[in-house]
Amino acid sequence: MKKIISKVFALVAIAATLLSFTAGSPAGGEGFEIFVNGKVVLQRFNKEVEVVKTLNLNPASPNDKISFRYYHCGQVGKNRFVTVKNADNNPLKVWNYADVTTGDISCTVKDLLSLQKGSNRTFRIFYSSSELPKGRELVEIVFGDMAKK
To answer: Which end of the chain lies in a sparser environment, N or C, as judged by fewer CB atoms within 10 Å?
Structure first.
């Protein structure tokens, strides 16, 4: 009887360990990915989304495409907005994106640089949707020595 009980406890311990690894998977939680020209440059999932990273795009071409993919429990959000703010947290532009079942939110380096005022080359990117109405800062994008084109 003791052998059976110890085997059951061992099985429960193994199952709990396996479940702890799958509970943090991107498919079931909140997260986002950022791409430059189709290449993943930043991924954040679950609790990591609360930590804002700085992405230095130096060098960058004005035609480089920056894409964002946000996951709400594996689903694409509804009524999605991206707000671009400057380093002082002042809004520069708000983009609204259509409701789709798949797809990225995207802009070009040129789109961001057209918002540039003075020598400021820092842009803070915020995402909001029906599922995330208060929004979340995704990333701070900094352009190094690139001249405004």
So the answer is: N
Identify the bridge partners of residue 40 per DSSP, sorted by sequence position. Answer: 35
Specify the pTM.
0.73
Q: Are strands 65-72 and 53-56 parallel, antiparallel or unpaired?
A: unpaired
Burial class from Cβ neighbours inside 10 Å (0-12, 13-18, 19+) for residue 40 reads exposed
- 144 by Cβ neighbours in 10 Å (0-12 / 13-18 / 19+) ranks as exposed
Structural domain tally of the chain? 1
User: Residue 101 is part of a domain; what is its CATH number?
Assistant: 2.60.40
56-102 pLDDT per residue, tens: 988 888 899 999 888 888 777 788 888 999 988 999 999 887 777 66
Would residue 44 count as lying in a domain?
yes
Q: Which residues contact 26 (CB under 8 A, 6 or more apart)?
A: 43, 45, 46, 71, 74
